[in-house]
Amino acid sequence: MAETKVLFRDDAYLRNAEAKVVRINDRGGIVLDRTIFYATSGGQPGDTGFLERADGMQVAIAGTITGESKEEIIHIPAAGAALPEAGEALRLLIDWERRYRLMRMHTACHLLTVACPFPITGAAVAEDDSRVDFDIPEAGFTKEDVTRALNELVAANHPVFTRWITDEELAANPGLVKSKNVRPPLGTGRIRLVCIGDYAAVDSQPCGGTHVKATGEVGEIHIGKIEKKGRENRRFRIRFGPLPPQ
Questions:
Q1: Which of 16, 45, 145, 185 is the most buried (most CB within 10 A)?
Q2: DSSP per position, 182-243
Q3: pTM higher than 0.85
Q4: pLDDT tens digits, residue range 25-46?
């Protein structure tokens, strides 16, 4: 199993980088020694873009996934794309506009967990319409109230940053985990936290995704719909732009 150095984990704003092909797997997936392509995980879809060869020809990447572990990242070429060879040097180019929208949306989902501090039962990040599901017996929330709270957090332009803690520190602070059913993977010795606010005063939770550097970059957002999904489950849908008039 090949491990890929994940450059996006430390700098989500990298739009291009250089890498070498480690191998092509039996399904035509491309494994590199390093990458800026985020692999589908934690509700956030994988990146798309191009791998540029020395002669300028580009291999379109239709998606990115993980392999046998989170450290093995597989770049899925578009149908019919000519594959590079093992050892070949490439220039990596992600679809930055798409990635940046996903970064803004993923950060918005974190803000929603601040506005609605209840156990999370599911989530999915998308470019235009994301969702977070909460275990809430009675909703008690309106689209208007939650939208107002979200945009106050955006307008405050809180810093967003990451830090690492040990497995033991996480065990000693179980409240950091907001998901009701899913726990961050343990065993590597360290957990990545995404923090919001000075000294993480607004929020701090385990997450391996990509986010913007400040909440102001999220832009205006609103709750498009609150749906009842079971007796104690409420689905909040987040969308960009102002709340449409009722």
A1: 45
A2: -----SSS-EEEEEESGGG-SEEEE--S---SBGGGG-SEEEEEEEE-STTEEEEEEEESPP
A3: yes
A4: 988 899 999 999 999 998 899 9
